[in-house]
Design goal:
396 residues, alpha+beta, four-stranded antiparallel β-sheet, 43% helix, binds (R)-mevalonate
Amino acid sequence: MLSEVLLVSAPGKVILHGEHAVVHGKVALAVALNLRTFLRLQPHSNGKVCLNLPNIGVKRAWDVAELQLQDTSFLEQGDATAPTAEQVEKLKEVAGITQDGAKPDGLAVLAFLYLYLSICRKQRALPSLDITVWSQLPTGASLGSSAAYSACMAAALLTACEEIPNPQKDGVSASRWAVEDLELINKWAFQGERMIHGNPSGVDNAVSTWGGVLRFQQGKISFLERPLVLKILLTNTKVPRSTKTLVASVRSRLLKFPEIVTPLLTSINAISLECERTLGEMAVAPAPEHYLVLEELIDMNQHHLNALGVGHASLDQLCRVTMAHGLHSKLTGAGGGGCGITLLRPDLEQPELEAMKQALNDCGFDCWETSIGAPGISIHSAAFLDPSVRQALDGP
Ligand code: MEV
């Protein structure tokens, strides 16, 4: 067991195309965001394991000796299969979760305990740890906050338990793990996501782990060349939604109307492929016509997602406001509120952009201009960590 403090971070994501369809085996294109989740793991010897999540007001502590006495043999099958509903119920008992475990704070605690008990069970004794996680990502907004949380947790616990080496180099601000270690991190991050979302495709944890711009289909990942010209405005409608519920609603629509919904999913797949092809061309020789193609793809996909039943009045409003400025938007992630993306053409004048952002703020939305293709899960040297992040992890 390592004795040093570990500081890790993982990015959130936006899905350009393929949300929901990816759950049914289709292609998704996703990019890592420059908004990150940070985790500090501090080993100690006070016989407790403590979890602090300042963003959602969670502060929990368990006696390691008590956890050690619990029968957690139900976790033995490890990383091979999704936790069953029965396992989740047992874990809630172990966690002493009496309130509604389906709320974000309950799910975050469950995912932590699942990863802690599963990853650390190979140690002679469960370790005493203090873990704080703080995020720049809003929760429940489709930006992959739970995947970034699970990836950070998996990476820190695997490193602390020496299941993977600590890649940190002296005098370097951020280091990354070797490919085989990232694969293990991704596998465990997926299990954490399953605790939170039930039946996720795995695209969110893949982006948090690998970073960059990637194509994801049925667990297979490949990387796209980064089109330097692509700028995106990210808008949070602040309408809360549940990914689990929205994914389940698409599944039931598919079961109810297979002949109507299957072609929609096939068409979304074709949109992702066309977008991938266009981004490939743009990486070589960007031209204004490429933007026209990307805008048409955005519009078509937004209509498809509405037909799948995952739209929302707030997202329609986002599309209308940006269209009034000649720009095209679609929901990103699970929909039902949450976030949308707007493609910013390079010819867009700054005053026009500012006017549009003001109009979106007037609707009660938050927006950020984002740079895409951020690095995946990383480990940081404390000396180089941004003071604001250090302060957020240290708490008031
Ligand atoms: C959520 O970020 C994306 C969905 O496609 C769900 C998933 O892929 O697990 C809606």
